[in-house]
Structures are given as structure tokens and as C-alpha cells.
């Protein structure tokens, strides 16, 4: 069997797994998992980040602890906990996909929380002060004045977080989730004679995805910088 | 209207406000001056609780400003505050800067807030810039929008924290002009500034501060011609030297 034949017979499996006969897998699953993970983590990250800069100590401390614990733990641990520990407590065995998704959302929202916090702290203090001195409550100040500006500065970091998330999905392999790394391993086991080439293709796939996204983040950064104080809406409209 | 009752404040070991007691009456225009680091900005920022105090009381129309449980947002909406760095919201137009607080805090309908904002922008001479973003305005124009924004909440008191210090010299006049017209209309104003011309022309009283203490309180006429405290004399001769050397 030549390598061209390997590609010819396995390319669809690599891209979508056993879909549509079986569950979705391969590269498609990786992308779905990363997008869904980041999308769901966004509101949580925003909430945790806001809590981290809020003036209320009783809210700030438990959230700070959570963020530090998660950030100080490898994602693999979080996945193990979600996969082995959670079912033993709740009595419900969740699917590999939802387990992985939950782990990613928890992990990402803690990282996003720090991005949000940094974005807010990066604004001049005068913005908050002038909004508060007009009589706007803290939450309205955040929603109407601080976040619209901070989110703009955070966009490149958010894309970078998406890149990390794509790479993190490969850990789904460990609990037998059929994402692209798992599928590549399966192909390697079946073909047996081309491990270097197969893993090279897997590596290239991740690289192309992540590299183009990081170029995008870089472009975004320059574009936002060149626009300076220009309108947020117009900056977002160009995306 | 505003009363300081033995107010003290420390930054760590540093005694930033030293037993300040003072009363400012309605419709009075009070200029606070003094060398940098003398505590004048700190003083004005304690009036709307941007800075906490460590002891004493500040009353505004009988309300204890630093009392626990005070509805700070409602309270602050009755005080206009103008910053040295303007602090306009860069993502909002001049008009939106002036309507955001009245609309959010439900001072009348959106239409009323808009009409009032337009009238205020007209008053500061910027009706034609209503839809401009702050980045499209000069420093002097930004500061005038900031004054209109503060006025939009119809506060009975206006506080100015070095409103012209961040401006290019040619733009100082337009901002002072707006402040003078406010003073003429009977607004109660506390102004931290080095603009001695402004103090002479519109201030009812001048407070001179150094090292956190109010060392001299007098009319502008007396302050500029016959300063009593040695440090006030020193301060006045310093700023005169610097203004003639330019």
C-alpha cells in the first residue's frame, strides 16, 4: 500500500470520522469542540473576569481561588476529574464529547477571566471614575463604558485563546474522543507502516489552523492599533 | 452648601489632608490653589467620594457624604465633576457622552435628554460637533464636551480638578470662557486651578493649600496683593517668575 493510497482511502475519515454513518469525528469534531468550547466559555469568562475586578470582596475571593486553582492545574487533570470523578458523584456517565466540552469550558473560562481582567485593568482609571462620578452604578459603568472599550482590546487575545483551545482538544484522545488526533492514531494502527508521515500530516493540520489564526490575531492587533480611538462598531464590522 | 468638618486623610504614612474645616456657600465660586502635591486634588475628590477620608465629615446640602449606606450613585448624580484629562468616553459621540447618564438614570425621556444635551453642547459652542467622536475633537473641545456632560445631570454643584492643565495654551481660553459663564449664572463651583487670571476675575474666594492644610482663605484681591502666609507669598512669587519667563 503506497502512501497515496493511504490518503485516498482515509482522507474522509480524517476529516469527519465515521460521519454520517457514525458519530462526527476527525478534524470536524476538533473544530466543533474548540468553537463550542470557546463560545460557551465566553459568558462564563466574562462573568468571572468582572467578578475579579468587582468591588465586592465576598464575590472576588472565591472566584480568585477558582481561577488560581484551575490555572495552576494541567487540563489533563481537569479532564480526568470530569471523566472519572464527576460520574461517581452525580451517578450520571456523560458522553466523551460533553465531558471534554465541560472540561474545556471550565478551563477556558478561567483563562478568559484573566484576559477580561487585564482588558479592564488596561483602560485608564479615569474612564471608570468619570462614569461613576456621573452617578452610573458599577454594573452600568462596566456594561456601557468599560466593556465596549476593553473587549476591543481583548479581541487579539481571544483569538489566541481560540488557538490554544484547538490544541487542547487533542487531549480528548485520552478519554477516547474521536477528534483528529484520535482518528490519526486509528489510521496509523490500521496502516502501520507510515507512522512518520501520518503524524506529520496531523502536525501540519494543527499548524496550518493555528498559524493562520495567529496571523489573523496579528492582523487584528495592527488594525485595531491603527484605528486608535475610532469607533468600535466599525472595527467589528470589518471582521 | 458644602461643609468640611475636621477632615483628615492619610496615604499610608503621608498625611494628605490635615484637619480641613471649611464652608462653601451656595452660588459661591471658590478657587483652590497651591503647589503640586499640596492636597488640592485630593480635597476636591473627597467631595464626591472618589477618595475616601479617614476621619471627620463632609456635608453636601446637609447630607453626610462619607456616611455608610448613602446611595452613592444618586448622590454623585447631583455633583458635576470635570477632570484634568477630560475622560470622555472614546467610543461614544459628543452627544452620546452627554446623554448616557441621564438616559440610564432616567432623568426624563430619551428625547428630553437628547434635547437638553444638544442645548448644552450649543451652550459650550459645540452644537456642530454633536456627532463627532472625542478623537475628532481638540483638547479644548473635549473639555467643553466634558463640562456639558457633567451639566447634563443638572447638578447644583460643579467641581473642576485642574480643568485646563492638560490643554495647549491656545485652548485654555475657550474652556475658561465656558466656566466663567457658568459662574455668572450662579453655579456653585469649586475649582482647582493655576489660572490666576480666572481666580481674579470670577472667584469669590481663594483657598491656598500646602502640605494638606488650608493655609490661607481670602478674597482674590487680598490673596494676590497681600498674601499673609509666607508659603503663599513664596507660591505667588514662584508662579509670577514662571509666567514672566515664558
**Shape summary of chain B:** globular
The average pLDDT score of chain A comes to 90
Helix vs. strand class of chain B: alpha/beta
Low-confidence segments of chain B? none
Write the element-wise H/E pattern of chain A from the N-terminal end onward: HHHHHHHHHH
Helix fraction of chain B, binned, reads 25-40%
Taking Cα atoms only, what radius of gyration of chain A do you get, to the nearest Å?
21 Å
> Which two chains share the most extensive interface?
A-B, 23 and 28 residues
Q: Total number of β-strand segments of chain B? A: 10
The main pleated sheet of chain B reads as:
6 strands, mixed
Q: Could you please describe the fold and organization of this structure?
A:
The complex is a heterodimer of chains A (239) and B (246). Chain A is mainly α and 239 residues long. Helices cover 79% and strands 0% of the residues of chain A. Chain A is built from ten helices and no strands. The model of chain A is unreliable at 229-239 (pLDDT under 50). Chain B contains nine helices and ten strands. In chain B, helix 3 (94-104) packs parallel to helix 5 and helix 4 packs across helix 5 (139-151). In chain B, strand 9 and strand 10 (213-218) form a beta hairpin. Chain B has a six-stranded mixed beta sheet, sandwiched between helices. A four-stranded antiparallel beta sheet of chain B has the order 2-1-4-5, covered by helices on one side. Chain B has helices spanning 40-47, 72-76, 94-104, 110-123, 139-151, 169-184, 196-202, 220-225, 230-245, and strands at residues 2-11, 14-24, 29-33, 55-60, 63-64, 79-82, 157-161, 188-192, 205-210, 213-218. The radius of gyration of chain B is 18 Å and the shape is globular. Chain B has 246 residues and is an alpha/beta fold. Chains A and B meet through helix 6 and helix 7 of A and helix 2, helix 3 and helix 5 of B.
Amino acid at each position: 500500500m503506497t502512501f497515496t493510497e493511504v490518503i485516498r482511502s482515509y482522507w474522509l475519515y480524517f476529516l469527519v470520522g465515521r460521519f454520517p454513518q457514525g458519530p462526527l469525528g476527525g478534524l470536524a469534531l476538533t473544530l466543533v469542540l474548540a468553537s463550542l468550547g470557546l463560545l460557551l466559555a465566553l459568558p462564563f469568562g466574562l462573568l468571572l473576569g468582572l467578578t475579579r475586578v468587582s468591588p465586592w470582596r465576598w464575590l472576588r475571593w472565591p472566584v480568585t481561588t477558582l481561577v488560581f486553582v484551575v490555572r495552576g492545574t494541567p487540563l489533563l487533570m481537569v479532564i480526568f476529574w470530569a471523566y472519572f470523578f464527576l460520574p461517581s458523584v452525580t451517578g450520571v456517565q456523560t458522553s466523551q464529547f460533553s465531558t471534554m466540552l465541560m472540561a474545556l469550558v471550565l478551563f477556558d473560562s478561567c483563562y478568559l477571566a484573566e484576559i477580561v481582567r487585564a482588558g479592564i485593568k488596561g483602560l485608564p482609571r479615569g474612564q471608570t471614575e468619570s462614569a461613576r462620578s456621573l452617578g452610573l452604578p458599577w454594573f452600568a459603568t462596566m456594561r456601557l463604558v468599560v466593556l465596549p472599550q476593553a473587549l476591543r482590546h481583548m479581541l487579539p487575545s481571544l483569538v489566541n485563546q481560540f488557538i490554544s483551545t484547538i490544541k487542547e482538544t487533542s487531549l480528548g484522545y485520552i478519554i477516547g474522543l474521536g477528534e483528529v488526533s484520535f482518528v490519526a492514531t486509528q489510521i496509523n494502527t490500521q496502516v502501520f507502516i507510515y507512522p512518520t508521515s501520518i503524524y506529520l500530516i496531523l502536525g501540519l493540520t494543527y499548524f496550518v489552523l493555528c498559524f493562520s489564526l495567529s496571523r489573523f490575531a496579528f492582523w487584528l492587533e495592527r488594525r485595531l492599533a491603527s484605528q486608535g480611538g475610532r469607533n468600535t462598531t466599525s472595527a467589528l464590522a470589518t471582521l | 452648601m458644602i461643609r468640611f468638618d475636621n477632615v483628615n486623610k492619610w496615604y499610608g504614612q503621608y498625611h494628605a489632608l490635615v484637619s480641613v474645616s471649611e464652608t462653601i456657600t451656595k452660588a459661591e465660586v471658590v478657587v483652590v490653589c497651591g503647589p503640586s502635591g499640596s492636597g488640592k486634588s485630593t480635597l476636591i475628590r473627597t467631595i464626591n467620594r472618589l477618595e475616601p477620608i479617614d476621619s471627620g465629615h463632609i456635608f453636601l446640602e446637609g447630607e453626610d457624604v462619607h456616611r455608610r449606606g448613602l446611595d452613592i450613585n444618586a448622590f454623585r448624580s447631583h455633583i458635576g465633576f470635570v477632570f484634568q484629562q477630560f475622560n470622555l468616553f472614546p467610543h461614544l459621540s459628543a452627544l452620546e457622552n452627554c446623554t448616557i447618564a441621564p438616559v440610564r438614570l432616567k432623568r426624563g425621556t430619551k428625547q428630553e435628554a437628547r434635547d437638553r444635551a444638544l442645548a448644552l453642547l450649543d451652550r459650550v459652542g459645540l452644537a456642530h460637533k454633536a456627532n463627532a467622536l472625542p478623537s475628532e475633537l481638540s483638547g479644548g473641545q473635549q473639555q467643553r464636551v466634558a463640562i456639558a456632560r457633567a451639566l447634563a445631570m443638572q447638578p447644583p454643584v460643579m467641581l473642576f480638578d485642574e480643568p485646563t492643565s492638560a490643554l495647549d495654551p491656545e485652548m485654555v481660553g475657550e474652556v475658561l470662557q465656558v466656566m466663567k459663564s457658568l459662574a455668572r449664572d450662579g453655579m456653585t463651583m469649586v475649582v482647582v486651578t493655576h489660572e490666576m487670571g480666572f481666580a481674579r476675575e470670577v472667584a469669590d474666594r481663594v483657598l491656598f493649600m500646602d502640605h494638606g492644610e488650608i493655609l490661607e482663605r481670602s478674597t482674590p484681591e487680598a490673596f494676590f496683593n497681600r498674601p499673609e502666609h509666607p508659603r503663599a507669598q513664596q507660591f505667588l512669587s514662584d508662579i509670577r517668575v514662571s509666567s514672566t519667563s515664558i
